[in-house]
Amino acid sequence: MQKNNDLDNKFYESVCKKYIETMSKEMLLEDKKGKILYIFIDDDYIKLKDNGKINLDNYKKYLDGNFEVEEYNSYEEIYNTSIKDNIAYDLNDLALFDENGNWNFYITFEELKKVGYGFMVKDQYPLIEKYAVSEEKIFDFFDYFSLEQLEDFEQTLNQYFIENTIQYDGENLFSCKENYTFNHDILRLACGLTSYDDFIKDYIEIEPTNYNLISPVVAKYFNEKEMDDLMEYGNDSDEGLYHLSTLYEDLMNELDIKFDSVYTEDISDGKYVTTIIFRDNSEIQIDTSAFNGIEVVTNNLISVLENYNEKVDEKNLEIEDEIDYDYA
């Protein structure tokens, strides 16, 4: 129980401090007794505050007399009393994403979900609302997924409903004309082949084996290179950028996926398609965007591994047939 309380305290501390950082006059100070002071600095001393010159020992000299010093026992108390409503106001006034589709709000999406406002991103993913999730479920839907998963859903729905690069073959399976990777599950939901409850249940209760294998490898790669996204990666001819082809080559070598070659091309500004050619000359294409991170790269490699394993199984089956024929 203590561990959960510590996690909650860290969560509320993070949210409160991120909100305070957006305010020019406001500060939080912790005294030696564990109390947290919520103070307002006079306009004349804002530069001192910004330069870190105001602290617990001298803050009284710089207070704005129009505001009282508020004292709290925990960051959760500060959040519920003073900050919760202000974040709600900011959600109506500030953009959550920048013009390139990157997260741009002062608390993370995971934090936003935890304070009950995950649904505020729905306008960023109009195809999910239009084709996959009913109006009565849409406000609940976004709490279950990361931004990268939501982007994956949205891209797949765009391929199927807008670009028509994915086809339904009549047997609950989908085949992509251009051999791009895509999310089968969101298409099954959009086409009425699975229920909303089953879709959510599968995602929160069933962790794919391949995910458990690949996710730690990708996370380690990102951490070692101090990466949050792929903004510094581009196609094979981009100068001044790392190459996505090299990233996927490194990760496939780590996962012992055998391949012949890899190359990456532009689709549009900040969006790329990487083609992986296996040793039998078959290939698979995966989409990556500059703002993607661990989740999308992991899902791409799951698709690559599944495709690779299919090739291995087919080869093994051919060998077994040859052995059976020799003994016959």
Q: Explain this structure to me?
A:
The protein is of the alpha+beta class and 328 residues long. The protein has 3 domains: 2-88, no CATH class; 112-202, no CATH class; 209-325, no CATH class. It is 47% helix and 14% strand. It has helices at 2-21, 46-50, 75-93, 109-114, 126-132, 138-141, 147-162, 184-190, 196-205, 209-224, 244-254, 294-327; strands spanning 26-30, 36-40, 70-72, 166-168, 174-176, 233-234, 242-243, 261-268, 271-277, 283-289. The strands form 4 sheets. It has a 3-stranded antiparallel beta sheet, covered by helices on one side. A 3-stranded antiparallel beta sheet has the order 8-9-10, covered by helices on one side. The chain has a two-stranded antiparallel ribbon with strand order 4-5. The longest helix is centred in the C-terminal third of the chain and has 34 residues, at 294-327.
Portion of residues in beta strands equals 5-15%
What characterizes the major β-sheet? 3 strands, antiparallel
Shape: elongated
Into how many domains do the coordinates divide?
3
- Unreliable residue stretches: 319-328
Widest sheet: strand ordering: 1-2-3
Radius of gyration: 25 Å
> Average pLDDT across residues?
86
How much helix is in the residues?
A: 40-55%
SSE map:
Layout: H1 2-21, E1 26-30, E2 36-40, H2 46-50, E3 70-72, H3 75-93, H4 109-114, H5 126-132, H6 138-141, H7 147-162, E4 166-168, E5 174-176, H8 184-190, H9 196-205, H10 209-224, E6 233-234, E7 242-243, H11 244-254, E8 261-268, E9 271-277, E10 283-289, H12 294-327
Helix pairs in contact: 1-3, 5-7, 7-8, 10-12
